Amino acid sequence: MMIKSFNCSIFCFYLFVVIILNVCDALFNPTDFGRIVDHPHRDGSKSKQIILNNGRCLPMVAFGTWQLGNDTVVKRAIKSAVTSGYRLIDTADIYGNEKMIGDILQEIFNEGIINRDDIFITTKVWCNHFSKPSVIKSIRRSMQRLKVSYLDLVLLHYPTGFKEIVGDKYPKFKNGSIIPRTWQKDSYTETWESMEEAVRKNYTRSIGVSNFNRAQIKTLLEKATIKPVLNQVESHPNLKQSLLLKYLMDEQILMQAYAPIRKADKELLNNPILMAIGENHNKSSAHIALRWQLQRSVPIVVKSSNPKRIKSNLQLFDFELNDDEMKQIQTIEEKSRIYDIDGLTNHPDYPFNEE
């Protein structure tokens, strides 16, 4: 009788561990959308993650890899990020670094630092792969380069499809304007059908978009059978995207911010409001800008090749901004976005004429 009781205890303990370690692999109830949870990992660490509209979880702080540097720099930075506690690696076809990221992740897995289930991988389909067959081919190539059997999240990088010319990522007319895949407006809705197919084929667990405005999200939702889980856009205290954020949250779609401290330029980091609030908390103005996003329920993508700054960008959960400080940040002057594509303004689906 004692042996049976002991075996039962062992089984229950094992079951408890499995449940805890897979808390964000299980699907939450849709009513949990936007709730932030402490997700435990097998190495004993925890990361703050937010529940998506499909019940899966997204780490609140992602490590970005765009223009991070050469292969050596990328390798060193990703290893530093993972050992520091980052659990989301953000890349894209157009970044040209998926193979290197795949190589270093395999090394990390083989060393037992983490395993595949511990890391969330986001990649993006570039604009010259927007025809139905090309979407799936692009996702499959990303999986091969990243050396994974599934992706956690795939985004449409922009709503603007380009003419598919082999070897030309930015096909242009002689006047410098991008050549669209089609002059039909809202053609991304056709592209989205293949994104949904990628979910059904288990190539990716979630799908989303990037650089879409409110009108484009609305059009997409009218035809989609699988709702995007998030819209990744440029956002920082000089470009708050408040209208877009409200609309997305009403539709249970997250807004994820890239360039959350612009280009780490003095124009933002020397802002007197951010600096004064930083002094109140013994934090940098960058920390304040990043924490402000998290308290708006906006996950962020941060980037650095400096190991100290990589660690510092994660130190966002040991303080909290009060209501007055949040309101002060809202008063910071709005400015033009800093990221766009040359020659894109004449495209029928150009997204940046409105929020």
Give a written overview of the molecule.
- This protein is an alpha/beta fold and 355 residues long.
- The protein has one domain: Alpha-Beta Barrel (TIM Barrel), CATH 3.20.20.100.
- Helices cover 37% and strands 16% of the residues.
- The chain is built from 12 helices and 12 strands.
- The strands form 2 sheets. The protein has an 8-stranded parallel barrel, surrounded by 4 helices.
- A hairpin with a 5-residue loop joins strand 2 and strand 3.
- The longest helix is centred in the N-terminal third of the chain and has 20 residues.
- The radius of gyration is 21 Å and the shape is globular.
Fold topology:
Elements: H1 2-21, E1 36-40, E2 46-51, E3 57-59, E4 61-64, H2 71-84, E5 88-90, H3 98-110, E6 120-125, H4 132-146, E7 151-156, H5 188-200, E8 204-210, H6 214-223, E9 230-234, H7 242-250, E10 254-258, E11 260-263, H8 266-269, H9 272-281, H10 285-295, E12 300-302, H11 307-312, H12 323-330
Parallel strand pairs: 4-5, 4-12, 5-6, 6-7, 7-8, 8-9, 9-10, 10-12
Antiparallel strand pairs: 1-2, 2-3
Helix pairs in contact: 2-3, 3-4, 4-5, 9-10
